[in-house]
Design brief:
single chain, 8 strands, globular, Rossmann fold
Amino acid sequence: MWLRGGHAQTVAGTFWPGRLPRYQAEARRVVLDDGDVIVVHDDCPSDWQPGGLVAMLIHGLAGCHLSPYMVRIAAKLVARGVRVFRMELRGCGAGAGLARWPYHAGRSDDVRCGVASVAEWTGGSPLVLVGFSLSGNILLKYLGEAPDLVLPNVSRAIAVNPPIDLERCVRTLDRRANRWYDRHFVALLLKQLDARRRILPDAPMPAQPLRSRRLFDFDDWYTAPISGYGSAREYYERCSSSQFLPRVRVPTTILTAHNDPLVPVEVFQEQALPDSVRLVIADGGGHLGYIARANSDPDTRWLDWRVVDWVTEALSV
């Protein structure tokens, strides 16, 4: 990798987006089981036909359809003839004001609704699911918690830097070197929460203000109780995808890095993975960084091209 160190890769991946193409997608709405609505952005190549390959990308914590990795990878896949749907989590991006309840790491039913809608819109065309960071955990939970209910058109899945052991990953933010990330994530979440309060004044909110800037405390104060969990620990325990991995049947690739500062590589190395799950551990890349030196790829965004490669593997099967 071009940048040395997991922190440098992670920060560069966030604050060095590169040149991004303009928005050309069609925004579609998906009604969820509880009546909340999310938005899915449909990037369809001009020559795509029913039966052609489809990918659904799902963003990470505090992101949206305009997160740079979502925009870049969607554009690269569309250039390969893949129809791409960028799914937003509840209340994010274009879906602000459409959901009373918050997104969280266990919202696998929302993925199920998104998959069903995409299958309907595309006539059941082969579908590759790609989840980044938090949504990587949601995706793996969806695939493993009820494998018989995964639609047959889901042909492959990719999870990038998924926090499969939520409590362990959140506790990693307590390390001195990681406290900036802790404060950064909480600031983004509080900003989203303030926007929700303005748009939806009747949305469920905690009675008392948050007195900490730690992600664990935010989840204990807001995410867990508002979502029906007794505590942050219960939320982490019930929603961590590590417990569901042994039941995943769909061919799945998990990508992580030895130097990811947010998701310790050991949480993957300690897993007994089924034959259906391929673990790829890059030497470097940080968390959603993976910026490489000039190589055989058309540009230095190593992550983008690996996702493109793994999505389009489905074309050769």
